[in-house]
Amino acid sequence: MYDAYGLEVLDQSECLELLRQNKVGRFVFVDRLLLAVHPVAYVFDQGSIVFQTNGGAKLDAATKHDLAAFEVDYIDPDLGWGWTVTLSGHAEPVTDSYEVARLHERLPEPWTNSGRVDVIRMHGEIIQGRRKKPDQVDPSHLMPDNSGQAVHGDSPDRRHQAEGEHAKTQGSAPIQS
Length: 177
What we know:
With 177 residues, this protein is α+β, with helices and mostly antiparallel strands. The protein has helices at 12-21, 56-63, 97-104, 158-165, and strands at 8-9, 24-31, 34-45, 48-53, 67-75, 82-93, 118-132, 142-144, 150-152. The longest helix has 10 residues, at 12-21.
C-alpha cells in the first residue's frame, strides 16, 4: 500500500522489526509548552521503547505521563531512499527495582553521565512507517559512469547494496504485543 505521496506504507510487523533492529532514535516530548526532540540510545523491550536518562526534561515528561513520540529512521544521504517509523503514545519512568536491574543489563549507556540514571519506558499506542525504495529514487539523481551507464551515487555497486540493505516495514495501527 502507498500513501498519497507515493511512499510505501509499512505494516505493523515491519515497523516493529525496524524498531528492534536499531539502537538510536529520537524521543519527542513537551518541555515548557514546546516540543523537544532528543536523541536517545534505546532497546526495544516487550513492545515498548526503553532508554536511560539523567533526570531533566525527559524524566519530567515521563513522570507526568505526557503524550510523547519516538522516531527512528534511515535515509541514504546520497540516494535519498530510506524509511521512517514513528511511535506515538505515553512515556513513564520505570520504578520497579527488579525491572530497572533487568533493563540496565540490556540498555546502552545514556548520552550524558551525571551519575544519576533513570529508566524511561515509551508505550506506543499508534505506530506508523513509510519507506522510499531505491527504485523510487528520482532518475535525475542518476549519474553516468565511465561506460555511459546510469548509476546511483558514487559507486556502480551502490544501488545493489542499497537494495540489499533496506529493511521491510505498513500502516498506522495500534500496536499489538
